[in-house]
Automatic annotation (TrEMBL):
GO molecular function, one term: serine-type carboxypeptidase activity
UniProt lineage: Eukaryota, Metazoa, Ecdysozoa, Arthropoda, Hexapoda
Organism, scientific name: Allacma fusca
Keywords attached to this entry: Carboxypeptidase, Glycoprotein, Hydrolase, Protease, Signal
Domain of life: Eukaryota
InterPro entries: Peptidase_S10
One Gene Ontology term from the biological process aspect of the record: proteolysis
The protein's name: Serine carboxypeptidase
Transmembrane segments: none
Keyword RNA-binding assigned: no
Length: 266
């Protein structure tokens, strides 16, 4: 694949297309694969997982680990510190219905991590069948945030499929940045207080709202509790923004999220 309007002195090889995971429902997962720019014949293959299921892999390609960078003006340039410089990177829009992935049947949409993991595992088996020269490379899963919850489910499915025989995925491990493990981990006023971003009175207000949100969720008011929790830490009108001026909860070094990812916070 060759992309237009990208000024680069180095040719970046890539392959893109669809992997049909269910012919009956015409369910297809979109993938974009970038062989390592260094030594693809020996460098590991990494599948990048973008946060929770439903996030398009294009975010990883153009904003995080891929070979391209897109700014707030939609200008695309080569990324100086891309993972593709030393690893073969695979990006898949998963599950079906995410990004460019599609199906002809609403019944094919995944209902939980197990079904999503099964879709990805089937896609990976097809990928390594098509790109058989990469079958013996070390394979890793990597991601950020909520991917820490999802990746173990994928690993469990891969290991179960490997045990059945046939094509085996050479799974070696996984890595997660800023892992999301528990909701209370995210909504923690103590951290803001420790950084000196809020005072004791503000901490008490945030603690009270956080406790209220979790009680609502525990009592079956999941939607209302989630909205209250989000209003504490995300967006220009959140308690975080009002007390500290920060609109980006994930970075203590930046008061506002980068323009190209700001949509996640509003």
């Amino acid at each position: 694949m060759k992309l237009a309007n990208i000024q680069s002195l180095v040719a970046i090889k890539s392959y893109s297309g669809y992997l049909t995971i269910d012919e009956k429902t015409n369910s297809n997962l979109f993938f974009w694969f970038f062989p390592s720019q260094k030594t693809p014949e020996q460098d590991p293959v990494i599948l990048w997982i973008n946060q929770a299921p439903g996030y398009s892999s294009l975010q990883g390609i153009f904003v995080e680990t891929g070979p391209f960078h897109v700014d707030s003006e939609s200008t695309v340039t080569p990324r100086n510190f891309s993972w593709t410089k030393s690893h073969s990177m695979l990006y898949i829009d998963s599950p079906v219905g995410t990004g460019f992935s599609f199906t002809d049947s609403p019944e094919a949409y995944a209902n939980g991590f197990d079904e999503d993991g099964a879709e990805l595992c089937e896609a990976l088996k097809q990928f390594f069948t098509i790109f058989k020269e990469f079958q013996d490379r070390e394979f890793y899963l990597a991601g950020e945030d909520y991917a820490a919850v999802f990746i173990p489910s994928i690993i469990k499915t891969i290991e179960a499929e490997n045990a059945k025989g046939g094509l085996k995925i050479n799974l070696k491990g996984f890595m997660v940045g800023s892992p999301y493990m528990d909701s209370k981990q995210v909504h923690n006023a103590q951290t803001l207080y420790n950084f000196g971003l809020i005072d004791k009175k503000q901490k008490a207000i945030m603690d009270g709202q956080i406790e209220k949100a979790f009680k609502m969720i525990e009592n079956g008011q999941a939607k209302e509790g989630e909205q209250l929790a989000l209003s504490i830490s995300y967006g220009p009108n959140s308690l975080l923004a009002k007390f500290t001026g920060f609109q980006d909860y994930s970075n203590a070094l930046a008061s506002k999220p980068r323009p190209e990812i700001a949509w996640r916070y509003f």
